[in-house]
Input
Amino acid sequence: MVSRSAASGSPQTKPQRAVARIDQNAPVNFTFDGRSYRGFAGDTLASALLANNVHLVGRSFKYHRPRGIMAAGSEEPNALIRLGKGAYAEPNLRATQIEIFEGLYAESQNRTPSLKFDIGAINSVLDRFFPAGFYYKTFMWPASMWMRYEHVIRHAAGLGKVADDHNDPDRYEKTHAHCDILVAGGGATGLMAALQAAKSGARVILADEQNEFGGWLLGEADIMIGDCPAFNWISDIVAELAAMPNVTLLPRTTVFGYLDHNYLTLNERVTDHLPSRPAHLPRQRLWKIRAKQVIIAQGAHERPLVFAGNDLPGVMLAGAVRTYINRYGVCPGQRAIVVCNNDDAYRTALDLHHAGAHVVVADLRAKATGPLMRAVRDAGIEILQGHAIIAAYGNHRVARVEIAPVNDAVTEISGDIDHRDCDLIAMSGGLSPAVHLHSQARGKLQWDDAKLCFRPSATHEPSFNIGACNGSFDLSAGLKEAVRAGTKAASATGHKTTALDTPIVQSHKQSWRPLAAWKIPNGHAAGRGQKAFVDFQNDVTASDVSLAAREGYQSVEHLKRYTTTGMGTDQGKTSNINALAILADALGNEIPAVGTTTFRMPYTPSNIGAIAGRDIGDLFDPVRLTRMDDWHRAHGATFEHVGQWMRAWYYPQNGETMQQAVNREVKAARTTAGLLDASTLGKIDIRGRDAAEFLNRLYTNAWRKLGIGKCRYGLMLKDDGMVMDDGVTTRIGENHFHMTTTTGGAAGVLDWMEEWLQTEWPDLEVYLTSVTEQWAVATLSGPNAGKILQDAGIDFDLSPTEFPFMSMKEGHIGGLAARIFRISFTGELSYEINVAARHGLALWTRLMAAGKAHGITPYGTEAMHVLRAEKGFIIVGQETDGSVTPHDLGMDWIVSKTKPDFIGKRALARHTMEYDDRKQLVGLLCSDPSTVIPEGAHAVLDPDQPLPMKMLGQVTSSYFSPNCGRSIAMAMLKGGHALKGQTVFFPMLDGSVLKAEIVDTAFFDPKGARING
Amino acid sequence: MLIITCPFCGPRDEVEFACGGEAHIARPLADHKISDADFADYLFMRDNPKGLFLERWRHSAGCRRWFNVARDTVSNEIVEIYPMGSLPVKTAAKTTYKTSWRRDTAAEKAATPSRSKAGGSK
Ligand SMILES: [Zn+2]
Output
């Protein structure tokens, strides 16, 4: 026997006959809306608030109506709470699922300035302006008003407020797990199935969203299993499972997603219930489980009845009332009306009666009989058969109801209206199996005309539905299904087990066939009178549904979006069937013909933090650093992201601006020497008998006759003829090449080559290895480059005859083994020096030391871009965008006319390639040499033409070139090659117009005279 | 989230794989002259059927090998996994291959005779 003493306010509770699941020796203090309350360990925020006589806990979404606690589990639509403060604050948590802990801080939502006085409640008075599809009807054209509408909508829409500081300080983790059998739901049937399966030795994971296993049985006082109270049976079976090494028990864990091939996602709330969170534990853990078999034991949700005023605080689901009485020792009211269309609510009447409340039962059914009704009558409880609550009234809590006799179909009031005072309505409209996971996994549903619910028919994945989620509301039947499913699932995973005896269940004999009564008449014409809610969270009323049907929304999916039924965070767990039954009625159709909306994950809202896990901040995407990175940082480099790489961008000195630093670096590379960290270039080692033939097919130019030790530039096309990458490839040996790719393209090019080798030319013997990270590369460029290499200790002859342009030599620099490529991306005398990655920093510092006397200047990617643009060299991905051919780039010279085939060859011969309005690469000189035309600026031939202007194309690269002493740019312009010498215009956003002459792209040293220093 | 059985590594999560789209699109050989429209069948036209689909997958975060998969795009059932350069053997997958519109295209005819390659299915 537990009697619960209330901490504050009037005593709400009377001695209970059941063993409550709270610990009265462990008081817990918490704060709600600035007031302190006391509950006990084992309480939820909802039960503790009810124990403190707090019924008003929130305001509704659209009308800001006062709302209370309706349910006792995750289906709760009303009692949405903001929990915690500052960075820890989290909105829209269900009070029915929050376990209280010492110091818990909670606030109600959607009210200004306070819960009891809320100015948004004016919407409730203006309700005639908020019909179904309100947003769609109100906020239409003109488009120019959209900015304003959006502001209004954003302000009005949405529940709750996110954390004040958006940097979530909590830690989350992810776990991948495999098991033979996953049991989703740890009520009686889930426990039974888990035990049955586990006895076979199969690996079983059992997850339940509550803090304790036992499901709805935790809230029942009148059920015996195997000669002992249900809870004893639960404790025994949980203890037995916990002792089995092949079983993992996951309490506080919601299975929220069921994806293809039995892949399920679970959210475990590891420390949410603790007053302080231990540092070694994550706040929540996301489980990704691959199960061979799944047993779904999700239970069922009780449906509200749709009567006027059914959303008042104090109107609760009948089963939830039993849970508050029996599990938490809280009787939520003293004068209760039980209104129902089924037998089950009579058990609530009995429990209320035993808890000391005055109870009246209004049964929509005219003629219901059975042992439960007899027990209720014997207890002296008044039963009004064939009666309905036609309206409920109250300010911040239900205070009075109108009860009237109704006809058999519950469509009309058939007699005088009686008024009763009350402080609690326990309503029951029958049960809806929780078919969410089954449906997410694309299982089929069938309408059960006797039990008035959708229940699973065929499964799509290897899975079983058992118990209430299967429409088997009777516990004995559910346990039998559990034994069967446990046995079958074990056997399907190769484990043998003998069926356990199904325990004997003693409970009231009852019928599970409710009366179909979806919308209770209120005595007014349609659309008049008090609102009767279907979807409590999204404030959708019965008349909204009917109105939508009249306006032609006949598909349930359209109805859902138009009225927003079932679109709240509760996903319509309590509302969907009522909405669809009312729609079916309005359409004169059968419920199964109307069908259900699609069930989607998540089953309950899941924390984004848990989904992100540790993949945030520095771990969001790996950053790759070169071996010289420390030097760049020590020397004040700024950095830019290039793909995953961090590259030195420029090296400002003595307070230089970016432009000043880049100008200095660009100048030095052409007057003395520049040194670039080029380690990030993609590098692929290519070997095999057919390596040369493979390159011949891969690149547009010829490769078979390339000499050993010689380098060649190549363009790679997709098979549609468009440029995809470029780079220099060198023949190391007869059957051995070293390919370089763009920094960003390295992985893609390797994949591309593998694809062709494996899928199109498996007869070619070629082996590819990525060696990007094996080589560190320093590019030394400028007239003094040779002298610096000498001083750094090169051990071979650098003269152009011995080591000509476009060749490679292996040797040593100050003892470091190196491959040196005489190639140039600047047009200057240039050496790309490759050493083993571990020698990268040594090479760099050696070159810097040797170059000191020769004016060596480190330069970054920005200077690299300017230097190549001065020469008119393209960058794939800057000048090209996947729609550019070699011809468009003016690079016909690199496309072989004689090779029988290469990737892209046939496509280049398509007639569309000859259109003269293809965009082509040109150079631009702005009429004002000091003005750098913005990249992306669009060119027109006539700036005075009417809008919309005919656009020629866009600027792809644009810089100030210190070596040319002016700005330079490249652009892709329609028919650009034929426009050389003409003037184009660039209308700017500020109304000004820039003017430029179309020129060749080689701005500096067009004859290439400087290549040998 | 599919489980795909890599022929080289065994059953693995879909996250380890990359889908390469429709299988058995033969590349026309250069010595066959075909029209731009016929060539477009190879270059651009891709199936997107409701039902069984023969497609290429790559174990991109594993062994990097390509292989063919016969997958039902509605149920996500994987009917058959078979090597690059070969044809499916399961009846339904075989039928899907045989009845594809692609079998009658000039592009596919231009991909044979295969002088320099074995397999040749891409
Ligand atoms: Zn593999």
